[in-house]
Amino acid sequence: VFLNRQQLQEQINAFLTEQASPGLSIISRPTKSLAQKICFVFNGQGPQWWSMGR
Length: 54
Prior knowledge:
Elements: H1 5-16
């Protein structure tokens, strides 16, 4: 969760450096494979209008 562009940049940097940051949640578990892939990203409450995500 972020309120402005600066907070977003700070949270991305915190994620990349594996540091704690207010509003940043990282949930993970070990995988059997060394290759890791993103399964999905939860954007909150869905699209802002019908078919926005198409």
